[in-house]
Please model this.
Amino acid sequence: MTRIRKAVFPVAGLGTRFLPATKAMPKEMLTVVDRPVIQHVVDEAREAGIEHFVFVTGRNKSVIEDHFDKQVELEATLTERSKSAELAELAASLPGPGQTSYTRQQAPLGLGHAVWCAREIVGNEPFALLLPDMVMQDTPGCLKQMLDAHAGLEAPANLIATEEVAEDRTHQYGIVAVGEDVGDAFRVTGMVEKPAPGTAPSNLIISGRYILQPEIFDLLARQQAGAGGEIQLTDAMIQLAERQPFYGYRFGGRSFDCGSKIGFLSANVALALARDDIAPEFRDALKDLLKN
Ligand code: G1P
Model:
């Protein structure tokens, strides 16, 4: 069984759908309840046993690096004031020394290009890829479920999370064609990035969690621009699937596309309702609002 030690987080996107909020602040730092979107996704990876967190950043994203670093002055002040709960919270969300790497995608050439930028840091081993736009809610988390399923597949296997969406939304995502079930997964027999309305091979979307073999990097290096004029990860995965076993995992939990306003707002509501410390009061506040 191959252990998956590293996870890649592409965080170079511009966040134009959230202007003006994202004019000076990265979209990954928008808050869902009381932590930034990116922290929810990093926490999911950590829960799954990931030991090294690779961020593909861009201009104006250095606050993400600061977020995953120690804040010495803040910690000193909290210690002085005996704020042990806050200190513990900060410590829990901090990757250990040497467990983070940052590289920059120098131009917005697409998700495939962003992933390729991580090739030297990932090296020649299978890795996880988590798109920070997607916040997943389930116990255990989506990546942990996938790693368990992946462990049961014959190596070297690629595995991507999928979930159903309404037919009229398939054109916004990568879509898989579904083959036979194998263990907790199914064989992926085809993929298409952002199919024209009415042409999708299924209503199962590629939902932003991947376990990929390192051979993807050579394919990405040669990948031409595809949908939207961008270098698409999905196009390179289509070629990888011709060479290696490629599976889909049906994620049964909830997921929120925090790249859209409705997804982001829904994530805030759902995650707040799942918090024992907030839910009772928040539920009353929501009921009040919905009355009118
Ligand atoms: C990317 C992927 C797509 C996937 C989606 C999930 O698209 O290319 O296959 O379905 O993320 O959010 P993007 O959202 O970057 O357009």
